[in-house]
Amino acid sequence: MINCRTLSALLAGAAVTSACTIPTTPIPNNIAYPFRAQVQNASRPEVHNLYMNLLEVGGGDRHLFIGPVGTPTYDLTLVDGVINHVPAGVRAVIGGEFSEIDHTTKLFMTGRGDPRAIFQPTYACNPDTDALQIELRFVMWQNQPAGGWICVRPTFDNSYEFRYYPPGNTLVDVNRECIKVTLVVIPTTGLPQSSTTLSTSTISSTSTSTSSSSTSTSSSTSTSTSTSTTSSTSTPTTGPLPFTDLTSSGYRFLGCAPEERWTTDGAFRTLPDAVISSDTMANAFCTSWCTARGYKYAGTEWSRECWCGNAFAPTRQPATTIASLAKCNYKCTGDQSQNCGGDAWLSLYEHCAAGATCNNVVFT
Ligand SMILES: *[C@@H]1O[C@H](CO)[C@@H](O)[C@H](O)[C@H]1NC(C)=O
Protein backbone atom coordinates (compact mmCIF):
# COMPACT_ATOMS: atom_id res chain seq x y z
CA MET A 1 0.00 0.00 0.00
CA ILE A 2 1.49 3.32 -1.08
CA ASN A 3 0.84 6.41 0.97
CA CYS A 4 -0.66 8.44 -1.81
CA ARG A 5 -0.58 11.76 -0.05
CA THR A 6 3.17 11.50 0.23
CA LEU A 7 3.55 10.22 -3.31
CA SER A 8 1.55 13.04 -4.83
CA ALA A 9 3.31 15.64 -2.77
CA LEU A 10 6.63 14.31 -3.95
CA LEU A 11 5.56 14.19 -7.56
CA ALA A 12 3.87 17.54 -7.75
CA GLY A 13 5.88 19.31 -5.11
CA ALA A 14 2.66 20.63 -3.64
CA ALA A 15 0.36 19.78 -0.76
CA VAL A 16 -2.74 17.75 -1.54
CA THR A 17 -6.00 17.83 0.32
CA SER A 18 -7.13 14.22 0.00
CA ALA A 19 -5.55 10.84 -0.28
CA CYS A 20 -6.50 8.22 -2.81
CA THR A 21 -6.33 4.58 -1.86
CA ILE A 22 -4.28 2.30 -4.06
CA PRO A 23 -6.02 -1.05 -4.61
CA THR A 24 -3.86 -4.00 -3.75
CA THR A 25 -5.17 -6.12 -6.62
CA PRO A 26 -2.76 -6.12 -9.53
CA ILE A 27 -3.96 -4.91 -12.94
CA PRO A 28 -3.57 -7.32 -15.86
CA ASN A 29 -1.50 -5.98 -18.72
CA ASN A 30 -4.45 -6.25 -21.09
CA ILE A 31 -6.98 -3.41 -21.19
CA ALA A 32 -9.84 -4.29 -23.52
CA TYR A 33 -11.97 -1.18 -22.97
CA PRO A 34 -11.20 1.83 -25.18
CA PHE A 35 -9.12 4.63 -23.73
CA ARG A 36 -7.27 7.82 -24.53
CA ALA A 37 -3.65 8.16 -23.51
CA GLN A 38 -3.04 11.26 -21.42
CA VAL A 39 0.40 12.70 -20.82
CA GLN A 40 1.27 13.93 -17.34
CA ASN A 41 4.19 15.80 -15.86
CA ALA A 42 2.81 18.15 -13.23
CA SER A 43 5.94 20.27 -13.17
CA ARG A 44 5.78 20.91 -16.93
CA PRO A 45 2.48 22.70 -17.67
CA GLU A 46 3.26 22.95 -21.40
CA VAL A 47 2.70 19.20 -21.77
CA HIS A 48 0.77 18.25 -18.62
CA ASN A 49 -2.65 16.63 -19.22
CA LEU A 50 -2.49 16.77 -23.03
CA TYR A 51 -3.70 13.74 -24.97
CA MET A 52 -1.85 11.59 -27.45
CA ASN A 53 -2.87 12.23 -31.06
CA LEU A 54 -2.28 9.86 -33.97
CA LEU A 55 -1.16 11.17 -37.35
CA GLU A 56 -1.53 8.86 -40.33
CA VAL A 57 1.68 8.64 -42.30
CA GLY A 58 2.91 6.67 -45.28
CA GLY A 59 2.66 2.88 -45.27
CA GLY A 60 -0.17 2.78 -42.75
CA ASP A 61 2.01 3.92 -39.86
CA ARG A 62 0.79 6.41 -37.27
CA HIS A 63 3.05 8.97 -35.68
CA LEU A 64 2.29 10.13 -32.16
CA PHE A 65 1.99 13.75 -31.03
CA ILE A 66 0.62 15.97 -28.35
CA GLY A 67 -0.44 19.48 -29.36
CA PRO A 68 -2.12 20.62 -32.57
CA VAL A 69 -0.75 17.91 -34.87
CA GLY A 70 -2.63 14.65 -35.45
CA THR A 71 -6.07 13.30 -34.69
CA PRO A 72 -7.46 12.78 -31.18
CA THR A 73 -7.86 9.05 -30.66
CA TYR A 74 -10.41 7.58 -28.26
CA ASP A 75 -10.11 3.87 -28.88
CA LEU A 76 -6.70 2.68 -27.82
CA THR A 77 -6.38 -0.67 -26.03
CA LEU A 78 -3.55 -2.50 -24.27
CA VAL A 79 -2.55 -5.96 -25.50
CA ASP A 80 0.12 -7.77 -23.46
CA GLY A 81 1.46 -4.41 -22.32
CA VAL A 82 1.53 -2.92 -25.83
CA ILE A 83 -0.63 0.07 -26.79
CA ASN A 84 -2.77 -0.91 -29.78
CA HIS A 85 -5.04 0.97 -32.15
CA VAL A 86 -7.03 -1.93 -33.54
CA PRO A 87 -9.05 0.02 -36.18
CA ALA A 88 -5.81 1.06 -37.86
CA GLY A 89 -4.08 -2.27 -37.24
CA VAL A 90 -1.14 -0.62 -35.49
CA ARG A 91 0.66 -0.92 -32.15
CA ALA A 92 3.23 1.18 -30.33
CA VAL A 93 6.83 0.35 -31.19
CA ILE A 94 10.17 2.04 -30.78
CA GLY A 95 12.63 2.46 -33.62
CA GLY A 96 14.13 4.86 -36.09
CA GLU A 97 15.14 8.51 -36.04
CA PHE A 98 17.80 7.89 -33.40
CA SER A 99 19.13 11.24 -32.21
CA GLU A 100 22.89 11.51 -31.72
CA ILE A 101 22.34 14.56 -29.53
CA ASP A 102 20.17 13.08 -26.78
CA HIS A 103 20.23 9.36 -27.72
CA THR A 104 16.45 9.19 -27.95
CA THR A 105 14.56 7.03 -30.45
CA LYS A 106 11.12 7.52 -31.94
CA LEU A 107 8.01 5.94 -30.40
CA PHE A 108 5.33 5.43 -33.05
CA MET A 109 2.66 2.96 -34.16
CA THR A 110 2.87 0.44 -36.96
CA GLY A 111 1.52 -2.90 -38.11
CA ARG A 112 5.03 -4.16 -38.80
CA GLY A 113 7.06 -6.24 -36.40
CA ASP A 114 9.37 -3.61 -34.90
CA PRO A 115 10.28 -4.18 -31.22
CA ARG A 116 7.40 -3.02 -29.07
CA ALA A 117 7.19 -0.50 -26.29
CA ILE A 118 6.11 -2.54 -23.24
CA PHE A 119 4.07 -0.95 -20.45
CA GLN A 120 2.63 -2.19 -17.16
CA PRO A 121 -0.69 -0.70 -16.01
CA THR A 122 -0.27 0.51 -12.44
CA TYR A 123 -2.58 2.26 -10.00
CA ALA A 124 -1.49 5.73 -8.93
CA CYS A 125 -2.94 8.99 -7.69
CA ASN A 126 -3.55 11.89 -10.03
CA PRO A 127 -1.00 14.63 -9.20
CA ASP A 128 -3.63 17.38 -9.51
CA THR A 129 -6.79 15.81 -8.11
CA ASP A 130 -5.42 12.84 -6.16
CA ALA A 131 -8.07 10.71 -7.83
CA LEU A 132 -7.15 7.10 -8.46
CA GLN A 133 -5.85 6.59 -11.99
CA ILE A 134 -4.20 3.86 -14.05
CA GLU A 135 -0.78 4.80 -15.34
CA LEU A 136 1.04 2.95 -18.07
CA ARG A 137 4.45 2.53 -16.47
CA PHE A 138 7.11 2.09 -19.10
CA VAL A 139 8.84 -1.28 -18.62
CA MET A 140 11.20 -1.64 -21.55
CA TRP A 141 11.87 -1.46 -25.24
CA GLN A 142 11.41 -5.09 -26.31
CA ASN A 143 14.76 -6.94 -26.65
CA GLN A 144 16.59 -4.08 -24.90
CA PRO A 145 17.73 -3.66 -21.28
CA ALA A 146 14.78 -2.88 -19.00
CA GLY A 147 14.19 0.70 -17.96
CA GLY A 148 14.34 4.08 -19.59
CA TRP A 149 11.28 6.23 -20.01
CA ILE A 150 9.01 7.89 -22.52
CA CYS A 151 9.49 11.59 -23.17
CA VAL A 152 8.01 14.20 -25.50
CA ARG A 153 10.21 16.51 -27.57
CA PRO A 154 9.22 19.72 -29.37
CA THR A 155 8.73 19.23 -33.10
CA PHE A 156 6.95 21.01 -35.91
CA ASP A 157 3.92 23.23 -35.56
CA ASN A 158 4.02 23.75 -31.80
CA SER A 159 3.53 20.06 -31.11
CA TYR A 160 5.60 17.42 -29.33
CA GLU A 161 6.57 13.97 -30.61
CA PHE A 162 7.00 10.85 -28.47
CA ARG A 163 10.48 9.48 -27.86
CA TYR A 164 12.19 6.72 -25.88
CA TYR A 165 14.93 7.78 -23.47
CA PRO A 166 17.20 4.77 -22.75
CA PRO A 167 18.23 3.66 -19.25
CA GLY A 168 21.48 5.16 -17.97
CA ASN A 169 21.32 8.01 -20.47
CA THR A 170 22.03 11.54 -19.25
CA LEU A 171 22.19 13.43 -22.55
CA VAL A 172 19.93 16.43 -23.09
CA ASP A 173 19.28 18.32 -26.29
CA VAL A 174 19.28 21.87 -24.95
CA ASN A 175 17.39 23.14 -27.97
CA ARG A 176 14.73 20.42 -27.85
CA GLU A 177 14.54 19.00 -24.36
CA CYS A 178 12.75 15.67 -24.25
CA ILE A 179 10.39 16.00 -21.28
CA LYS A 180 9.82 12.83 -19.27
CA VAL A 181 6.12 12.01 -19.09
CA THR A 182 3.77 9.51 -17.53
CA LEU A 183 1.10 7.97 -19.77
CA VAL A 184 -2.31 7.65 -18.14
CA VAL A 185 -5.30 5.55 -19.22
CA ILE A 186 -8.45 7.69 -19.63
CA PRO A 187 -11.37 5.31 -20.33
CA THR A 188 -13.78 6.41 -23.08
CA THR A 189 -16.79 5.02 -24.87
CA GLY A 190 -14.59 4.70 -27.92
CA LEU A 191 -16.25 7.74 -29.46
CA PRO A 192 -15.09 11.36 -29.56
CA GLN A 193 -16.44 13.19 -26.54
CA SER A 194 -17.07 16.42 -28.42
CA SER A 195 -19.37 16.85 -31.37
CA THR A 196 -16.57 18.32 -33.44
CA THR A 197 -15.63 15.90 -36.17
CA LEU A 198 -12.06 16.10 -37.20
CA SER A 199 -11.00 14.96 -40.59
CA THR A 200 -8.28 12.40 -40.57
CA SER A 201 -5.09 13.93 -41.73
CA THR A 202 -2.87 11.89 -43.94
CA ILE A 203 0.81 12.36 -44.40
CA SER A 204 3.05 10.69 -46.91
CA SER A 205 6.66 9.88 -46.47
CA THR A 206 8.93 12.59 -47.78
CA SER A 207 10.78 10.33 -50.15
CA THR A 208 7.84 8.97 -52.09
CA SER A 209 5.93 12.20 -52.47
CA THR A 210 8.89 14.25 -53.61
CA SER A 211 9.20 12.32 -56.82
CA SER A 212 5.50 12.21 -57.52
CA SER A 213 4.97 15.94 -57.15
CA SER A 214 6.75 16.85 -60.35
CA THR A 215 4.74 14.45 -62.43
CA SER A 216 1.40 15.68 -61.18
CA THR A 217 2.13 19.30 -62.07
CA SER A 218 1.47 18.74 -65.75
CA SER A 219 -2.11 17.64 -65.19
CA SER A 220 -3.04 20.93 -63.62
CA THR A 221 -1.65 23.36 -66.19
CA SER A 222 -4.87 23.96 -68.02
CA THR A 223 -5.14 27.72 -67.79
CA SER A 224 -3.86 30.34 -70.13
CA THR A 225 -0.56 31.84 -69.15
CA SER A 226 -1.40 35.09 -70.91
CA THR A 227 -3.90 36.03 -68.24
CA SER A 228 -1.50 35.67 -65.37
CA THR A 229 -0.17 38.87 -63.93
CA THR A 230 1.17 39.24 -60.46
CA SER A 231 -0.63 41.59 -58.17
CA SER A 232 2.58 43.44 -57.52
CA THR A 233 2.04 45.43 -60.71
CA SER A 234 -1.13 46.92 -59.25
CA THR A 235 0.28 48.00 -55.92
CA PRO A 236 2.32 51.00 -54.97
CA THR A 237 5.12 48.94 -53.43
CA THR A 238 8.34 48.37 -55.23
CA GLY A 239 9.33 44.83 -56.01
CA PRO A 240 7.13 41.75 -55.86
CA LEU A 241 4.94 41.00 -52.89
CA PRO A 242 6.18 38.24 -50.57
CA PHE A 243 4.32 35.32 -52.07
CA THR A 244 4.98 32.89 -54.89
CA ASP A 245 2.99 33.53 -58.07
CA LEU A 246 1.75 30.19 -59.41
CA THR A 247 -0.91 31.52 -61.79
CA SER A 248 1.02 30.25 -64.80
CA SER A 249 0.58 26.72 -63.48
CA GLY A 250 -3.08 27.18 -62.60
CA TYR A 251 -3.18 28.29 -58.96
CA ARG A 252 -4.24 31.62 -57.54
CA PHE A 253 -2.80 32.95 -54.31
CA LEU A 254 -5.56 33.88 -51.86
CA GLY A 255 -3.47 35.27 -49.02
CA CYS A 256 -2.15 34.36 -45.61
CA ALA A 257 -4.87 32.41 -43.79
CA PRO A 258 -5.10 31.86 -40.02
CA GLU A 259 -5.05 28.47 -38.35
CA GLU A 260 -7.09 27.71 -35.21
CA ARG A 261 -4.66 29.48 -32.90
CA TRP A 262 -5.62 32.87 -34.36
CA THR A 263 -9.38 32.33 -34.50
CA THR A 264 -12.18 31.71 -32.04
CA ASP A 265 -14.38 29.54 -34.26
CA GLY A 266 -13.53 26.37 -32.33
CA ALA A 267 -12.63 24.45 -35.46
CA PHE A 268 -9.33 22.71 -36.00
CA ARG A 269 -7.31 22.96 -39.20
CA THR A 270 -8.16 25.44 -41.93
CA LEU A 271 -7.48 22.75 -44.56
CA PRO A 272 -7.86 19.53 -42.57
CA ASP A 273 -8.06 16.82 -45.19
CA ALA A 274 -4.46 15.89 -45.91
CA VAL A 275 -1.00 16.98 -44.89
CA ILE A 276 2.56 16.26 -45.85
CA SER A 277 5.71 17.52 -44.19
CA SER A 278 8.88 17.60 -46.25
CA ASP A 279 12.45 18.85 -46.31
CA THR A 280 11.86 19.79 -49.94
CA MET A 281 8.68 21.83 -49.39
CA ALA A 282 7.89 24.67 -51.80
CA ASN A 283 4.59 26.20 -52.90
CA ALA A 284 4.40 24.39 -56.26
CA PHE A 285 5.26 21.14 -54.53
CA CYS A 286 2.25 21.67 -52.28
CA THR A 287 -0.26 22.72 -54.92
CA SER A 288 0.72 19.74 -57.09
CA TRP A 289 0.55 17.38 -54.15
CA CYS A 290 -2.96 18.50 -53.20
CA THR A 291 -4.20 18.51 -56.79
CA ALA A 292 -2.93 14.97 -57.28
CA ARG A 293 -5.19 13.98 -54.37
CA GLY A 294 -8.19 15.79 -55.78
CA TYR A 295 -8.19 18.84 -53.49
CA LYS A 296 -9.09 22.35 -54.56
CA TYR A 297 -7.16 24.27 -51.91
CA ALA A 298 -3.54 23.94 -50.86
CA GLY A 299 -1.56 25.81 -48.24
CA THR A 300 2.01 25.78 -47.02
CA GLU A 301 2.83 26.38 -43.36
CA TRP A 302 5.71 26.38 -40.91
CA SER A 303 8.30 26.19 -43.73
CA ARG A 304 7.76 22.47 -44.29
CA GLU A 305 4.09 21.53 -44.19
CA CYS A 306 1.51 21.32 -46.94
CA TRP A 307 -2.19 21.09 -46.08
CA CYS A 308 -5.07 20.29 -48.46
CA GLY A 309 -8.84 20.66 -48.42
CA ASN A 310 -11.89 21.31 -50.55
CA ALA A 311 -13.31 24.14 -48.48
CA PHE A 312 -12.46 26.46 -45.63
CA ALA A 313 -14.61 28.35 -43.16
CA PRO A 314 -15.39 32.05 -43.68
CA THR A 315 -13.59 32.66 -40.38
CA ARG A 316 -10.41 31.44 -42.06
CA GLN A 317 -10.67 33.78 -45.05
CA PRO A 318 -7.33 35.54 -45.51
CA ALA A 319 -7.11 39.34 -45.37
CA THR A 320 -6.27 41.24 -48.56
CA THR A 321 -3.98 43.86 -47.12
CA ILE A 322 -0.31 43.86 -48.00
CA ALA A 323 0.41 44.03 -44.28
CA SER A 324 -1.40 40.73 -43.70
CA LEU A 325 1.15 38.93 -45.84
CA ALA A 326 3.84 39.57 -43.25
CA LYS A 327 2.52 36.66 -41.15
CA CYS A 328 3.49 34.21 -43.89
CA ASN A 329 7.22 34.85 -43.75
CA TYR A 330 8.76 31.42 -43.07
CA LYS A 331 11.18 30.35 -45.78
CA CYS A 332 10.32 27.07 -47.52
CA THR A 333 12.56 24.16 -46.53
CA GLY A 334 12.95 23.28 -50.20
CA ASP A 335 13.39 26.80 -51.60
CA GLN A 336 14.73 29.60 -49.44
CA SER A 337 13.57 32.19 -51.99
CA GLN A 338 9.91 31.38 -51.27
CA ASN A 339 7.72 31.85 -48.22
CA CYS A 340 5.83 28.79 -46.97
CA GLY A 341 3.32 30.14 -44.45
CA GLY A 342 4.24 31.02 -40.88
CA ASP A 343 3.59 30.08 -37.28
CA ALA A 344 0.02 28.80 -37.62
CA TRP A 345 -0.45 30.80 -40.83
CA LEU A 346 -1.06 29.22 -44.24
CA SER A 347 0.12 30.54 -47.60
CA LEU A 348 -3.18 29.66 -49.24
CA TYR A 349 -3.71 28.73 -52.92
CA GLU A 350 -6.77 27.75 -54.93
CA HIS A 351 -6.67 25.52 -57.99
CA CYS A 352 -8.18 27.59 -60.81
CA ALA A 353 -10.98 25.96 -62.79
CA ALA A 354 -9.91 24.61 -66.17
CA GLY A 355 -10.07 27.28 -68.86
CA ALA A 356 -10.89 30.06 -66.42
CA THR A 357 -8.87 33.19 -65.90
CA CYS A 358 -6.40 32.66 -63.08
CA ASN A 359 -5.47 35.76 -61.14
CA ASN A 360 -4.07 36.20 -57.68
CA VAL A 361 -6.06 38.18 -55.17
CA VAL A 362 -5.07 41.84 -55.33
CA PHE A 363 -3.50 43.06 -52.10
CA THR A 364 -3.72 46.72 -51.22
C1 LIG B 1 9.12 16.09 -15.68
O1 LIG B 1 10.09 16.31 -16.67
C2 LIG B 1 11.39 16.55 -16.17
C3 LIG B 1 12.26 16.81 -17.39
O2 LIG B 1 12.30 15.71 -18.24
C4 LIG B 1 11.87 15.34 -15.37
O3 LIG B 1 13.14 15.61 -14.83
C5 LIG B 1 10.88 15.05 -14.27
O4 LIG B 1 11.27 13.86 -13.62
C6 LIG B 1 9.49 14.89 -14.85
N1 LIG B 1 8.53 14.70 -13.78
C7 LIG B 1 7.71 13.67 -13.77
C8 LIG B 1 6.80 13.62 -12.60
O5 LIG B 1 7.71 12.81 -14.63
From TrEMBL:
It holds the Pfam family WSC. The keyword Signal applies. It is found in: Membrane. It is a single-pass membrane protein. Residues 194-238 have a biased composition (Low complexity). GO terms for cellular component: plasma membrane. The keyword Glycoprotein applies. Residues 192-243 are annotated as: Disordered. Residues 250-352 form the WSC domain. Keywords: Glycoprotein, Membrane, Signal, Transmembrane, Transmembrane helix. Residues 1-19 form the signal peptide. This is WSC domain-containing protein.
